Structure formats: structure tokens, C-alpha cells
Task: structure prediction
Amino acid sequence: SVIFTIDKQFAMTGINRSFINRYNSDEIIGMNAFELIQEDEQTRVKEIIDRVFSDKQAESFTVRSSEVDPGRFYTVQAVPFIRNSAAEGLTLIATDITDKILAEERLKETNQRLHALAAHLQTIREEERTMISREIHDQLGQELTALKMDIAFLSRQIDKVKLSGKPDWNELQDGLKSMSDITDQTINSVRRIARELRPDVLDKLGLKDAIEWQAEEFTKRTGIDCIVSISQSELNFKHELENTVFRIVQESLTNVARHSGASRSKVGLSVNGSSIYLTIEDNGRGITPEEIDNAKSLGLVGIKERAYSVNGKLTINGQKDKGTILKIIIPIEQ
Result:
């Protein structure tokens, strides 16, 4: 702790060894104590000091140090020393709590990110449910209705055969073919919906082909060119790691489509030593520092949390009207 004394004019009259290690004693003795704290806090602290002198009661407060010792936070206890029933001066004991303050701020920021991520995940779940509901209603619903109509048609044909004893084989074959075609369409629709929810290419062909497939789908859907550059012909990582890398690429490209205004994008993946190097870049408007730090940038929150979940180091840089580049380094061994 730093300990010093002041008189009623707020001039410093004594200091302990901790002060001597930071300041020249000849310079600091006689200096106004308020020069040690930020200018915007001096009025508040003066009111506290005046009250300690007048009430002759110790008080504690927190304060930020001045530019001489920038960026430090202290908790200060002001204790009056009394002679002849009057406070002649104060002893101030200042304890550095910067690390505690910064830790609390980091914890608060982390909690904000977690809350934002939870909200983001809930939004994704609702979007997926909406998509599944729409696909089932619009696509599968229509196909199953058509299949039901064909079954009803065949039922009527069978009733006619019972009455006439002469089956119309051509109509029956046409009905069966229509039912077979609709069944094939329904199967393909189910596979497509399942693939959108969980691309089977990642399980069947591996990470490299999955990323290339995702880039092709991205270009088809958005019209934004997407170049994939993967240095290795084969990538063999643990399933959880492959899934995380793929999801980061997926969400990054979604961000490019939603926010960048880009016409081109690029995904790069390489392995160097014991680390995976992943980059996603575009030629769009360029992300701003405020957007990078904004806990409400849900897409970025999701990417950051996925990267941190595999001990990744993430950097994001944007240049106005030149684009954004996202770089992630992930250790292979988790």
C-alpha cells in the first residue's frame, strides 16, 4: 500500500517507502495531493476529504490515478489525525485494486458474451424450427397430398375393376409411376432437409470436401464468389474439432452474406506444425472496431465462442471499403 499524509491545504507532508520507489521525495513533498488523481474525479474526492476534516470521521473511496501513474485504480482510506479536538491533517492509505477491477470487467464482459450467445443460440433454434416447419408444410405436405390423391385414384380404379372385371392396366401403371415419382421426391426432400440441418458431407468425405461444398452452396445461394484454398490434400482431426472448424466457416460466410456487401470471399485452411490456421476474408465494406467489440454482434459472438471452445486464438481486422479478414489459430491437440 501507498501511505501519505496531507494538511488542510491538501499539500502532501509525508510519504512512505512505496511512494519513494515511484516518485522523487523532494518533488512530491508539498505537492497538491489532487494532482495524483484523474482531473474528472477531483471534485468528488475533494467533497469526501472536506467531510473527513469537518466530521473527523474516517472514510473510504475508490479513485483512478493521474497520468503520472495511468490506468491504475486504488481504494483509499482517509483517516484524520486530531489535535485539540480538530483534524489537523489526514493519513491516506491507498491500495492498488487495478487487477481486481480489470478482472471484474473481464468477468462482466464474459457474462455479456455468454448472455448474447445464449440469445443467439435460441434465435438459431427458432430459425431452424421455422425452416423445418415451412419445409414440412410447403414441400413434404404437398408431396404427401399428391401421393394421397394418387392412392385415391388407384382405389377408384380398383373399384371400377371390381364392377367391370376389366382392368385398365395403362391407367394403373400411370398411377403407380406417379406414386413412385412422388415417393422419390419426398425422399429427396427429407434428405435435403436433413443435409441442411447436418451436412452429411462432413461425415462422409471429411473436412476439406465439406468446406468446398459449403463454399459452392454459399455462392449458389448468395451470388458471392467464394474461393477455397486448402494446402493439405487430407485433413484428419478429431470429430469435434472438424465440426467446430466447419461451423466457424459456415457462420463466417453467413456473416459475409448478411453484413459485408462483398462480391468476393475466400476461405483458407492450412496446417503448420501442431496448429490449424484458418482465414476467412472478403472485399466488403470492412468491419469497424466498434462492431468487433460489440457483445450484441451475435454472429461474431458465436464465432468467438466456438474458437475459444477449442483453445483458438482469434483476430479480426477490417479496412473501410477494402474488406474484413478473420484469422484463427487452433491447436490440433486439445
